[in-house]
Amino acid sequence: MGTKAMSVSVPVTGSAPPSEPVSPLKLVFGTEPRFVNPPHVTRNLNIETFPTDSPQQGSGDALVKISPNPPVSHPIGLTGYSSGMTGRHVLNVGSLSKEQLHQLFNLAHSMRVAVIKDRPLDYLLKGKVMASIFYEVSTRTMCSFAAAMMRLGGSVIYMNEHMSSSKKGESIRDTIAVMSSYADVLVLRHPEPGCVETASRVCRKPLINAGDGIGEHPTQALLDIFTIREEIGTVNGLTITMVGDLKHGRTVHSLARLLTLYRVTLRYVSPTCLQMPQSVVDYVSTKGIKQEVYTSLEDALPETDVLYMTRIQQERFKKLQQYNEVKGSYIITPKLMTKAKKKMVVMHPLPRVDEINESFDSDPRAAYFRQAEFGMYVRMALLGLILGKC
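Structure (tokenized):
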């Protein structure tokens, strides 16, 4: 057959986004017939050709049958999420929409149920490789990303500052350019704010920001909001109080920004020298979110629905004396929590030092270890969406 184009009007129910009209299908015949329509129009369709030598059609012609592909069956009941996240970097929370959060959290919840019920998910990312690149120490973020990838059937390659060619003077740009040749997705933590965004410019694969100094930590903010949803059932209408080192805490910087997608009241409790950066306060203000500043935790506690504790970060201080002056400013104890609501949660990105007394761990409102577990499910969902497998 010679190469030619043919338009065929075929109903493509559910293939195109509602905002886009359904166009006639266009086939190009060559060695094999193929669609030339955009992928969202044809991704659920299958082409079959049947040779015929009938008198009505010359030798070498063919009949063409276009039929829907059978839907992919997922044991956890997933049905083709379309989040716009496939193949994208995740560098900050500002790039995420409310719709994307909703889809991500629903998928994370489904994956949580699947893991609890011991349903296999290791077919989703089979054959995919994640590069775990950490220039700063990490327990939860590094291990939960690795666990997430492995539970979905993928594999992980590791690199840190001590075992990399950065010891020989290699730039982060060169390192990322090379590592993106080995992996399908990269997870990067670096102590310098903005470094992850710089690295993304030379990264040919999706890059996830796992924390850049005192800048942002977008996946922590995602798991924090997912935790609130799982623990309380909603985010809207809550008073969320952030306590501790708000100046250096990248977790609260990302969380405050991301919470502007909801109807909440934010309270900030910190020593004067560790208050929330003005850039974050200004951003939240532009979104119409109510913000209140306290120095006393006891004053802020009674109306709080979510108490988000953070540690005073000794490594961010230039002088030990400055750290000693503010460490231990706020400590959660069972006695203090008698002034809090019965139905509320206490969260912490961890690690903790002395800001939550271990005697409070048995309190049902202590959600920080559940929060760490929820992080794995959120990162499972995120990897699945970014790699286009969910």
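The first helix runs from residue 39 to 42. The chain is about 30% helix and 20% strand.
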